[in-house]
Design a protein that fits this description.
Layout (H helix, E strand, L loop, with lengths): L3 E6 L6 H17 L3 E6 L4 H8 L3 E4 L10 H9 L8 H8 L1 H10 L7 E5 H6 L1 H11 L4 E5 L9 E3 L5 H9 L4 E6 L3 E9 L4 E2 L3 E5 L6 H5 L4 E4 L6 H17 L5 E9 L4 E7 L9 H8 L4 H13 L3
Parallel strand pairs: 1-2, 1-3
Antiparallel strand pairs: 4-7, 5-6, 5-7, 8-9, 8-10, 8-12, 10-11, 12-13
């Protein structure tokens, strides 16, 4: 008998629109595989809705805050409902770029140097905060909110005169900002799949712009996925190993996607981890899974099977 699956989608994060696309694609795949599926747009009635519908498993198709950060995972634990993806702790660590970087470093995974500051620091002495960031990290750099996804609020800064604007843009989305040294190289992503995790084929991202930003990610024709990445085999293997170590370092389960820059010497530098990768028609994870032999409906079924395994 096919399971009853609730697809949690939408919500109220800055990534709501992407979540709705992800959720719809997952819902259609569930129908194709003849699951009894229904969609739930996350709001204050979500617990009541779940108790009324009594799903066998919840497929979390949320991105960003209130979905990818451990909050929904905690609610589902309280309700006793199995769910896809990582648990409370891994989710809350994964969305926080600063905390995840600390664990990457502890696990021996290379990640670009960075400096953090918060809204209060900036308000009290913005000149010193900015000067300190430039002294420590320098130009070029990437300025990003600590707990946002889909490159929302993120800027690539190649000129010092653009730095303040980038910082203030990031502060519009988060109270904490990361200034990260830009590592020049090949931008790739490595998907991790399964409770006994394996690394999917490397995927290189080629863009029509200088930066793989929100518009480039979600506009047809502005980026290309090259599988496997155009790197020597030993560099691909090292990137996959780094991705697995990053996944395990924060305790992920089920699946994740690890974003990496491979520098000119062939060293992989982990930028961040996504505990709920996008599943839209333009998303990276489904393409990498397809290259490993998982068509989209089969991938969704597999993730449900993994969710129903006891941790």
């Amino acid at each position: 008998m096919k399971k009853r699956v609730a697809v949690l989608m939408g919500g109220r994060s800055a990534e709501r629109d992407i979540s709705l696309l992800t959720g719809e694609q997952i819902y259609q795949a569930l129908l194709e595989k003849e699951y009894e599926a229904f969609k739930i747009d996350l709001d204050e009635n979500v617990a009541e809705d779940l108790l009324r519908l009594k799903p066998d498993v919840v497929f979390i198709a949320l991105h960003g805050r209130f979905g990818e950060d451990g909050t929904v995972q905690g609610l589902l634990e309280i309700l006793g409902l199995p769910y896809t993806g990582s648990g409370v702790m891994a989710s809350s660590i994964g969305i926080n770029k600063a905390m995840s970087k600390k664990l990457f470093q502890a696990a021996g995974v290379s990640t670009p140097p960075y400096k953090l500051f918060c809204t209060r620091d900036y308000a009290e002495d913005s000149a010193e905060v900015l000067a300190g960031s430039l002294r420590t990290i320098g130009i070029p750099c990437v300025v990003k909110p600590v707990s946002e996804g889909s490159t929302i609020g993120m800027s690539l800064v190649r000129r010092e005169e653009d730095f303040i604007e980038a910082v203030e843009r990031a502060l519009e989305h988060d109270s904490e900002v990361m200034v990260e040294r830009l590592v020049e190289g090949v931008e790739i992503t490595v998907g991790i799949l399964g409770n006994d995790p394996i690394a999917l084929p490397t995927l290189e991202i080629e863009t029509e712009t200088d930066f793989f930003d929100y518009e480039t990610k979600y506009t047809t024709g502005m980026s290309r996925h090259i599988i496997p990445a155009r790197l020597p085999e030993d560099q691909q293997w090292r990137a996959q190993e780094a991705a697995l170590r990053a996944h395990n370092a924060i305790g992920c389960r089920g699946f994740s996607r690890v974003d990496i820059i491979v520098d000119k010497e062939g060293t992989p530098h982990v930028l961040e981890i996504n505990t709920i990768p996008g599943m839209t028609s333009l998303s990276l994870f489904p393409d990498a899974a397809r290259a490993a032999g998982y068509e989209f409906p089969e991938l969704i079924s597999y993730l449900i099977e993994q969710a129903l395994e006891k941790p």
